[in-house]
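Q: What would this chain look like folded?
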Amino acid sequence: PQSTTAVASLAALHSNRSPAQRSPSTTSRGGGHHQHPGATVDVAAWIDALRLPAETAAKFTSAGYTDLEMIFEMGLCDEDLDYVGVDVPLHRRLLRAAVDEGSFAPTLRAQVVDYRICGSVALYAITSRYKFRRSMLHLRYANFVTLYAKLRAIERDRAQTASPFADVGDPLPKLPGSRVFVDQKGPTFLEQRRKELDEYLQKTLAVAANDAKLEHAVLAFLELAAESFAALGPPPLGGPSAGSSPA
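A: My prediction, written as structure tokens:
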């Protein structure tokens, strides 16, 4: 994201009106116009993840700063924070850093980005982010099989405990199957497998986003579960830089 010195102040736009009073479809940035997606993310959850007082979230809401996507796109500058009423210098620095560094991911994001051969084993690189947590993993296809089995077990248990009249269905995507009569270490196969695993991961994230049990299983798979970070304390001011980082 651009630094806030290169972005017009939200509070100054349209005669000092708040973002809630602006048209969400004509966000101006860097000389161009970008269609705003319209979907909003809970600003209170963001404030809470920053370990800031609850009254800070109330100030943002009262000032009309309720769309986190717009805040991240437009940035926060001193005039914005004055308008909102954030007076504590440490809180101001933390809010600015969280936006400037793009260190906060309100929803779980993950991608299979690469592959490599380690000895006789193919490993697939996965980058993931959730709130202030980040991870970079190199996993085998067998790890995806284990995840798939765990998610299926959750759905099986749910079906057994559900009402016999309930339409439980099977929302989980299918895992790409194993292949025998191919060169499994060749670049053509590995790149195709990477794409297939990434497609599976994206579909799984979409399903898990609406199901707490499935989401927790996916977070554990990506080593982003909250309990993995509970003892690490609050995030650094500038946001995480590499590897795993605290929530």
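Residues 109 and 129 are 5 Å apart (CA to CA).
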